[in-house]
Predict the structure of tryptophan synthase.
Amino acid sequence: MKNIPYKIYLSEEELPRQWYNVRADMKTDHSPILNPATLKPVTVSDLEPVFCTELAKQELNTTDRFIDIPDEVRDFYKMYRPSPLVRAYCLEKALGTPAKIYYKFEGQNTSGSHKLNSAIAQAYYAKQQGLTSLTTETGAGQWGTALSMACGYFGLKLRVYMVRVSSEQKPYRKAVMETYGAKVIPSPSDTTNVGRKILAEFPDNTGSLGTAISEAVEVAVSTEGTRYVLGSVLNQVLLHQTIIGLESKKALEKCDEYPDIVIGCAGGGSNLGGLMAPFMQDKLAGRHAPHFIAVEPASCPSLTRGKFAYDFCDTGKVTPLARMYTLGSGFIPSANHAGGLRYHGMSPILSQLYHDGYLDEARSVEQTKVFEAAELFARVEGTLPAPESSHAIAVAIQEALKCKETGEEKTILFGLTGTGYFDLAAYMAYNAGTMTDYIPTDADLERGFSCIPHLDGIQ
Ligand SMILES: *Cc1c(COP(=O)(O)O)cnc(C)c1O
């Protein structure tokens, strides 16, 4: 028997030097992102008023398989990467499974999640371009925190539109963001036209990521030296997050391991896209056939119950149109939903891979089941997981228990995207037994679908 340690660390030297662009290998590229005014595929110059130029180029890059990680970004990565790949011996034992479970832990930085991997890259390109400030939205707060750290590092100003319900649930997130120099504004707000319009119509609106995006974009395009950045969904973000999968693959190779099953939680799809990318490369090339599973909340089920259609990426309908699995840009998960992953759509890359069957499966989990898995994981593996990450834990446990039944020694890899220190209100609700599940009815979903635009002649 090989002696595989609990934690497998790569050296700083082994930190990947390039990100992997899965689009260069996809059998069918995702449908083009459309300019909402012309319904023509967007070009770099369409995107430039909103995004940094280099990031706009990455967004539309279908040809370069590998893209160099700039030295400054790689140096920043070294402050918290390579992140550990952990063999979950204690979880295996608690479950009594013959499966070998590994997780890639992205929570060991102050922002507490994988989002810093893209935040630092995006801030770097903004700085390179000579921009002075950025705007963004944040839901649960991880992205806003990560970007605050990145902007603080490069001396950029940052304005964060934070979904109102989250800003009320998570006041400490704001304290961290402000410490790094960001300005945090609960959304919808009266600082933008789109926010004022939404508040006039629905004064008690608790906000959504879609609305916060609309506000952040409005400010970016109307303020000198300012661009908008997004923490998930976009191709550029998936690209930066491939650092997770590339490191995981290298670390597994050191142990002569290759995953049979790769599991990730899916909000906008960036951590799963990044974790599975190098394994997807193998699958697309016919070298290996790992089984990929996306896990989403039952209360925001874009892959399992959404439509594959062109839709806006925001509620205010100011962003380009992407063909993706979507619940409709007006969809807002029920207010009792505490587990993050509340975005209405899904990364166009992941959507296409799912549609074509390369991303094999999507599963949804109810939040009380998610917290059950989180509790078990915390007790046996020692780390308090983020609720988002715990979706992946729940399905990793399901798969490990299947192995227990069949006796198969499958190798399971999942993404532990973050820690749960800022989700203590949700843990308190779970511990008090007051957490409830709400699964949207078909009628609830129909209301969201009714916002999906009908684009004549465009599939
Ligand atoms: C944002 C976040 C997610 C979900 O985002 P993806 O883009 O789908 O990866 C998952 N886990 C944590 C901890 C997060 O902060």
